[in-house]
Amino acid sequence: MQVLFFYLVALVTVISGVIVVAAKSPVNSALALVNTFFCLAVFYVMLSAPFMAAIQIMVYAGAIMVLILFVIMLLNMGVEPFKKFTHVTWGVVAGSLVLMLTLFFISRGQPTKVVGAITRDVILKEGHTELIGKSLFVNFLLPFEITSILLLVAIIGAVILAKKEV
Amino acid sequence: MELLSLSNAPLLFIAAMMIKILVVFGVTMGIVAYATWVERKVIGHMQTRLGPTLTGPMGLLQPIADGIKLFFKEDIIPTEASKIPFVLAPMMILIPSLITMAVIPFGSDMQFTAGGKTYIIPLQITDLNIGILYILAMAGLGVYGITLAGWSSNSKYSLIGGIRASAQMISYELAAGLSIIAVFMLSETLSMREIVAQQSGSILDWYVWKQPLAFLLFMITGTAEINRTPFDMPEAESELVSGFCTEYSSMKYALFFMAEYANMVVIAGIIATLFLGGWSGPTPWGPVNLLGKIFGFMFFLMWIRATFPRVRYDQLMKLGWKVLLPLALANIVVTGLVVVLAQ
């Protein structure tokens, strides 16, 4: 049942991924991307990581994609007239590189092997959110704080850039 | 005695789930339908009018008449509109608000005996251990419907309404999320069920007494999130015809209104659960308590609508970013200090 559900969601993910690339109107392609994010969130839930799923929806689907949609709407981009040949070529090159990487991992066997101390049993026992919280605020406190300062700098930079215009 | 789950009694579990979902959905939609009638009555009486009186006794059949009327109207899609987003948008507003109801607990555990075993059935559709985050995530998705409705109609009023809505909802989401953080710093859990359990002692255990500022902030930001007066800038009819839903007609138009009232029910349910003890207390009947609190808050929202004028758009943004957000942050800092000192 779980496997069946996985294949169903995976199918939807792949289809919406294809729509993201193939859709003519940028808004439709952004909507398909939102759908892809949703499917990824479902995968997180199936991996018993509901916290990651909620964050995925909140941050990517709820905030970033809304802003992207915003930009698309304000720029009022029309339907793309035609795709240049070079774009397609580069797309094929990048796609085949990713495919080779995937095949390489699969050929070495155990592509879903769990490495490290955090196994499924530990997650079920301690709780997924608790584990993330502990490692974020105990083991990786310094990187966490550095990231926040980086984001703060970005915010201040954005404010200064926006101020110039007025 | 064990918790009913898909593994120990699959058929019973699915049946119980279906019943719970149908009841919650039915009750929510019933409230949505009759909230339109109550709102017109309440505002009417506050403005020394009578409100609807002609359809049925006291105008009680008015929501049904409205529904039938909208159902039989012609469904117009403007030729210049982008078809797919235009059709999707009303659904994308209504669905996130309805599925948020799934994590709001509405009563204590029920016991059910079948096949010699006693199962515990919790009166809540699902108890996610990330309940609050789920609510915030779904609230974030509500923006899409309004933005898309505004953009896809290809009309300037709709577009301005849609853009106002998304700017407003993104700004107030932050303050709303931050004000809730103070609550779960005290509760030390994200599960709605646990949060209600911690408030179940007496009225004095309600989080509204421990977090009065968070309660106030969440009430204001919640009202702004669901675009109710005095924050209903997206559909300011005096300047934008009716904002993002200008070009809509028939059932699609009705869906926007259903979404507005469903959002009211949801936000009232969340406030009741997080701050006012949820289904526990003051009476011994769980669902009655929760419904009473929801009705009380919805009446409060209608009262505000009858009393206050709309705020100006720049005032709205200033309030969100320069007053509510810093207050919410300060509240988190103070709560953190108190929690650390009390240990």
UniProtKB/TrEMBL annotation, chain A:
Keywords: Cell membrane, Membrane, NAD, Quinone, Transmembrane, Transmembrane helix
Membrane topology, as annotated: Multi-pass membrane protein
GO MF terms, alphabetically ordered: NADH dehydrogenase (ubiquinone) activity; quinone binding
Annotated TM spans: 6-23, 30-47, 53-75, 87-106, 140-162
Catalysis performed (reactions): a quinone + NADH + 5 H(+)(in) = a quinol + NAD(+) + 4 H(+)(out)
Gene3D superfamilies according to UniProt: NADH-ubiquinone/plastoquinone oxidoreductase chain 6, subunit NuoJ
EC number: 7.1.1.-
Compartment(s) where it occurs, according to its Swiss-Prot or TrEMBL record: Cell membrane
Highest taxon listed in the record's lineage: Bacteria
Recorded GO CC terms: plasma membrane
Pfam families reported in the protein's UniProt record: Oxidored_q3 (PF00499)
Family annotation (PANTHER family): NADH-UBIQUINONE OXIDOREDUCTASE CHAIN 6 (PTHR33269:SF17)
Its job: NDH-1 shuttles electrons from NADH, via FMN and iron-sulfur (Fe-S) centers, to quinones in the respiratory chain. Couples the redox reaction to proton translocation (for every two electrons transferred, four hydrogen ions are translocated across the cytoplasmic membrane), and thus conserves the redox energy in a proton gradient.
Protein family per UniProt: Belongs to the complex I subunit 6 family.
The protein, known as: NADH-quinone oxidoreductase subunit J
Organism: Geothermobacter hydrogeniphilus
TrEMBL record, chain B:
GO biological process, one term: aerobic respiration
Catalysed conversion reaction: a quinone + NADH + 5 H(+)(in) = a quinol + NAD(+) + 4 H(+)(out)
Membrane topology category: Multi-pass membrane protein
One Pfam family in the UniProt entry: NADHdh
Transmembrane regions: 12-37, 86-108, 128-149, 170-187, 261-279, 285-304, 324-342
GO molecular function terms noted in the UniProt entry: NADH dehydrogenase activity; oxidoreductase activity, acting on NAD(P)H, quinone or similar compound as acceptor; quinone binding
Keywords: Cell membrane, Membrane, NAD, Quinone, Translocase, Transmembrane, Transmembrane helix, Ubiquinone
EC number(s) per entry: 7.1.1.-
GO CC annotations on file: plasma membrane
Annotated localization: Cell membrane; Membrane
Enzyme class: translocase
Subunit field text: NDH-1 is composed of 14 different subunits. Subunits NuoA, H, J, K, L, M, N constitute the membrane sector of the complex.
Protein family membership: Belongs to the complex I subunit 1 family.
Protein's job: NDH-1 shuttles electrons from NADH, via FMN and iron-sulfur (Fe-S) centers, to quinones in the respiratory chain. The immediate electron acceptor for the enzyme in this species is believed to be ubiquinone. Couples the redox reaction to proton translocation (for every two electrons transferred, four hydrogen ions are translocated across the cytoplasmic membrane), and thus conserves the redox energy in a proton gradient. This subunit may bind ubiquinone.
NCBIfam families noted in UniProt: PRK06076.1-2
Official protein name in the record: NADH-quinone oxidoreductase subunit H
UniProt organism field: Geothermobacter hydrogeniphilus
Gene name of this polypeptide: nuoH
